[in-house]
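Bit of a strange request maybe. I'm writing a small parser for structure token strings and I need a real example to test against, not something I typed by hand. Could someone generate the tokens for this chain?
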Amino acid sequence: QVQLVESGGGLVQPGGSLRLSCTASGRSIAVYVMGWYRQAPGKQREWVATSTSRGTRLYADSVKGRFTISRDNSKNTVFLQMNSLKSEDTAVYYCNSGDFWGKGTLVTVSS
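Reply from user aminoacidic:
Good idea to test on real output. This should exercise your parser:
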């Protein structure tokens, strides 16, 4: 049984930073593509960033230059460092690995 557990969400002011974590169990992330998605209130879930097993990192245009995806295979964990946060980044952030999803962690950007 594969499980993905996100953490690190919270309330942050515009311009601030947060680091999200996603720890996997039931599979080794070292050989899998790992991704972050988000869903804002009243909107569809959208892709944010991807980390491939070969080290390629891809980002949505809306977060490019502000967010960084990384992974620690020894800890079976993928991270999303979010800097220069904007109110439009407010959403529930989900970790993804193939057919498996975490339950999400809420990020609220507000003054």
